[in-house]
Each structure stands twice: as C-alpha cells, then as structure tokens.
Amino acid sequence: MNHLSRSFACSGFSEARFSRRHLLKVGGLGLLGLTLPGLLRAEATGKGPLARAKSVVFLYQFGGPSQLETFDMKPDAPEGIRGLHKPISSNVSGIQVSERLPRMAKVMDKVTLIRSMHHTMKNHNSASYYALTGHAPPVDDIRLKDSMELFPAYGSVVDRLAPLGEEMPTFVSYPYLIRDGSVTPGQHASFLGKAHDPFSFTQDPNSPDFSLPELSLPANLSHARLEQRREIQKLIDAQAGLLEYSATAKGLDAYYEKAFAMLDSTRLRHPFDLSAEPEKLRDRYGRHTYGQSCLLARRLVEAGTKFVTVYFSNSIGGQSTTAGGWDTHGFNNTRMFPIIEKYHLPMLDETLPTFLEDLDERGLLDTTLVVWMGEFGRTPKINANISRDHWPQCYTVLLAGGGVKRGFVYGASDKQAAYPAENPVRPDDLAATMFYLLGIDPQSTVHGVGNRPIHISEGKPIMGVMA
C-alpha cells in the first residue's frame, strides 16, 4: 500500500470515492504537508485561513525580560515585588508602562499585550527552544542540545509550507547565533532539511562597512563561469551517487541552489544597502546593532521576505552594562539592575517605537506581524542579590500589526504578576496564531524523523487578539 493509499485508509476513506483529479491534488498537497482532512476542510469552505499578515518580524529578547519592569508593573504590590520604576500612563486608557519607556507609552495604541503567557521551562536553552519553535522540549535542561528530533524554527516551517519561490529568501535570521553554553536549538530547519534553513548571517548591520560577502562574486569569477562550475559539480555528485542515496547531500544541494540564485539577485542585495536610508531615520532607530537590525527587518519586509528573526543578543547577559541579553543575574547587590537601567530599557524605548511608527507610516504595519518576546519572565520577588530569577509561570508578550488588535490587552496576571488570572496562553498557542495570521493552517502536518507526520502546532490560535 503506497503512502497516499495509507492516508486514505487511516482516514476511513476509500480511493473509489475520489476522482483522479482529487487523488492528484492530494498527492501534490502532500508535498506541502497538507493532509486529506485538511484538503476536505479547505474544499468545504472554499479556502484555508485568511492570510491577514504577509510577513512576521520576530524580535527575540534572549535572556528573559521582566514583565514587572516593562509592561505589567503591579504598582500596588508590596515593595520587593512591584516594579522598581513608577508606572506612567500610555496613549491608551488603562494601559501603563514603565516610566523608563516614555516613547513606548506613545505607541501603545498600535500594540496588543498578552499578559498571561506561561509554561514550565526554567532554563534558557530549553525555554528558548520552546519560544523559537512553539513546541515544548523533551527536558528542561540547560544542556539541551540541537538534534534532528527537535522541531524547526517558525520561519523554516513557513518556508516549507508557504515558500516565496522567488529570489528573495522566505526566512532570514540575524545578527547572531544564540547560545547558553551550547547552541540553542530551534534556530534552523532541523528535520525539514537544510533547504529550509534561514538565510542567516552574523555581520553587524551597524558596522560602517556592513555588507554581505555571500552575495558578491569574486572579481575574477563571472556568474556564467560560476554556473558552469556548478553544473560540473552536479555531474560529479550524480555520478558518485550522492544525490540518489544521501538525504544530507540532497538537502545541501537544495541549499546551495538557493544560495546560487541569490548571488545574482539585485532584489535581495537592495534591502542590505542601509546607506540608502536617511541619516535621521537611522539615528531614530539607534546607531547600534539592534537598531540597525530592526531597520534592516523593515527593508526585508518591504522586499517580500515572509519571516524575519532578529536576535537582540547572542548571550543571555552577564555583568556588563553595555552588552548582553535580558538576564539580570551576576550584579551582586548592585542597585536596580544596572544592565536594565543603562542598556535594555533605553534601547527598547529607542528602537521598538521607531520600528512600529516606521512600519505604520509606510502602510506596512497592517500586513506585518511584529512579535516582541523572550523565553520567560522574571520572579515577582526580588532576590537577595537585587535581581529577579527565571519565571516562566507568567510573563508578557507584545504583538503589533498583521491582523491583531491595536491598543489592547489580552489575558491578565494575578496581583503579583506571578500566575495567569485570565485567559492563559502557551507558546504553542502563540505559534498557532502566527501561522494562522500568515494563512497557514496550524493543523497542517510535516514529516519528522522516520517520516512521522507531525502537526506544525499543538496550540490553538488566540482569536481574542485578532482584529
């Protein structure tokens, strides 16, 4: 019994009930990870989910931002729990933010806050894997390492099910490969194959000589000569049997084919020319890696890229006050989390409002879903070292554009921002929401190790946040 026949048998249908056209259609859609029930649902309604977003920009705040120092301050909680700063009113009645975020206060009418995100992973690598894939890891362990058994990044799933099919990459990630000891899993295509890996780079967009050498041919090598060399390499590979027998070789070949197409793409090179932007706008974004990375994200969205992941930092943070992620451990009784005071909050208040305003002014925010989140929040109680510890039990995620409500709060935490009090949300649900807004059925399946069919999400779209 072939794969298609097994699908019918498992679904309780016989081939006799379907025309040859239906069989061909299911077979073709199977390559995209769609099942027979999914096809029937789509045919019954005439369409799948209505795509409200053309692109997603995933701003990943490695280290875990504190909800109590940003968007869920609990000013009436006891000292030692409430946020260290005073809350200020925003331009939306009833929504307050930290006094250290005055520019954010002016753009809260563009965003939705989810104040009831929760899970149970307390280590950076395991919690980050959950945040980057929407699938809970098998263990909560700082030593969680990448493997083909673990799930792919969101953008790789999008590239598998809804690729651009053009010279622009569907999925771009930069400017870091994040790690906490070992490399954090969930940043690439995993079992989907290297053909669906992100177009990833680690050059600094804030560097005066920022460029992508991957997109430039050597001066003595023309595109025609490179193509000839590529054809010769293909012949050698085929004769060696690599492409016929090795899945790894096939994946690499598809990856190189995509990279080769990009070499001659003026459409792709254009977004990376940040010098084309007005100096004043670049200043507004912030003359630092994160600011210019967000500006590049806007240019990539304009050019058609579907999923852009921008990593705030390559590390969780440490004792520096000029670099690192949102972790506040290690300052040893220093007053008021100096890395937040001097680095995190000023950068957040400079870059994110500019990014949202720029998208909105260009008419891109309605079709671009912006997700600002970390792997967890922070403990309500400040510890003996004047810090907050890891706290996945309740934290805040910010969404904007792409079909979500403006000036809205979904869910609520309890009086100490410790546990969800209303409408609890898991990373699984956020994943389903992103796919749904992109027009991808969250119940679509892909094939994992051993050709096992696996749902791209185990969550449900958060319909309450949608406009």
Architecture overview:
- There is one protein chain.
- The protein is of the alpha/beta class.
- It folds into two domains: 1-48, no CATH class; 50-211 and 270-465, Alkaline Phosphatase, subunit A (3-Layer(aba) Sandwich).
- Helices cover 33% and strands 14% of the residues.
- It has 14 helices and 18 strands.
- The protein has an eight-stranded mixed beta sheet with strand order 8-5-9-1-10-13-4-14, sandwiched between helices.
- Strand 2 and strand 3 (96-98) form a beta hairpin.
- Helix 12 (289-303) packs parallel to helix 13 (338-361).
- The protein is globular and about 70 Å long.
- Mean pLDDT is 84; it is low at 1-46 and 239-250.
Q: Pairing-aware structural class of the strands and helices?
A: alpha/beta
Mean pLDDT: 84
Q: Would you identify the CATH H-level superfamily of the largest domain?
A: Alkaline Phosphatase, subunit A
Shape: globular
Number of helices: 14
Instruction: Detail the poorly predicted runs.
Output: 1-46, 239-250
Percent of residues in helices comes to 25-40%
Q: Please identify, by name, the CATH architecture of the largest domain.
A: 3-Layer(aba) Sandwich
Largest sheet: 8 strands, mixed
Describe the structure using short key phrases:
alpha/beta, Alkaline Phosphatase, subunit A, 2 domains, eight-stranded mixed β-sheet, 14 helices, 33% helix
Detail the topology: elements first, then pairings.
Layout: H1 3-11, H2 20-30, H3 36-45, E1 55-60, E2 87-89, E3 96-98, H4 102-105, E4 111-117, H5 124-133, H6 154-161, E5 171-174, E6 179-180, E7 182-183, E8 199-200, H7 223-240, H8 242-245, H9 247-263, H10 266-269, H11 279-285, H12 289-303, E9 307-311, H13 338-361, E10 368-373, E11 377-378, E12 390-391, E13 395-400, E14 408-410, E15 412-413, E16 420-422, H14 427-437, E17 445-447, E18 453-455
Parallel strand pairs: 1-9, 1-10, 4-14, 5-8, 5-9
Antiparallel strand pairs: 2-3, 4-13, 6-7, 10-13, 11-12, 15-16, 17-18
Helix pairs in contact: 12-13
